[in-house]
Amino acid sequence: MESNVCQLKVNEMINLLVPMYRHQLPKYVPTVMLWGPPGVGKSQGVKAFAKQLEEAFSTQQIPKKVICTDVRLLLFNPVDLRGIPVADQKRELAIWLKPAIFQMDDSPNVINILFLDEISAAPLSVQASAYQMTLDRVVGEHKLPDNCIVIAAGNRVTDKSVAYKMPKALANRMTHYEIISDIDDWKQWALPAGIDSRIIGWLSYKPAGLFHFNPSDDNVAFQSPRSWEMVDRYLKIFDNFENAYPAIAGSIGKGAATEFKGYIKVFDKLPNIKDIYDGKNKDKLPNDPGLLYALSAAIASHAPKADLKQLKNILTYFTDIMPVEFTALTIRDMCIIKSVKDNFLKCPEWLEWCRKNKTFVL
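RESULT FIELD:
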């Protein structure tokens, strides 16, 4: 059944939430609930949101520090959220000791994010305990500070993961969004994060491989933004692809790993990227889309190390070697990284190229 809530890419979610919370705090903002299949990037998106919110507050006269507390409700019992009862001094009444997750800095130069991850995996009795937290911002006698943002995330029941159907009373206390994957959106995170350029090139060539999840099959290894991040780690751990292959197959599945292995052989045919930046290599390339995507990703990934002279060399190389649509793709990817974009703005030759080819760049 089609979802009846708004679908957002990860960066669309961040761009929606950052200005909303920046301008409304410490006023009450409804709790946000992020839905989506496992590995799509919900948790990573909340971490990126916290970082960008802190950057947004850094421009104010008094910067604010953003502290994100990740709470997995499936590990809690209902009584855990209320705390441990102890007798008062007169031994007449019970006083509930505050759980550590509610021990937050309420000073004006701090923003707290209480991230209730995997809330849909928590038993219904625990979800019921979250009613007050999501709407009234209290649990029993404990109140969240005014500088606290509450965000929840979880898998859908249809994902066939560990998930319980959320009670309507709890669902109605939150604003819901469904997170979806998108290759261009993912590259906005992957390029600055230093994800291996071979992964970026492969997924630019085969964008459907970024996320391939089928809840009806029994495969435990599948392609997702999270599993591709795992592949990146294995490529950095092992000294060559052959040694990394079993771990890669165990992360994204044997079929996807075999296809990626074939692409790695294409990547090995690329000229030395530093030589291209230094203007030492102007050899023609075969008109092979896979090779051009690989070259585009390799050049974009190397861009943060380039100076203005090298950027001009790259423009000359693009003009002589690459089709204009691949040049435009590479420029867009390079400009995702702020320091590279700033250098582009200092380079008249690049600005002139963009003016002449704005149909491809925009």
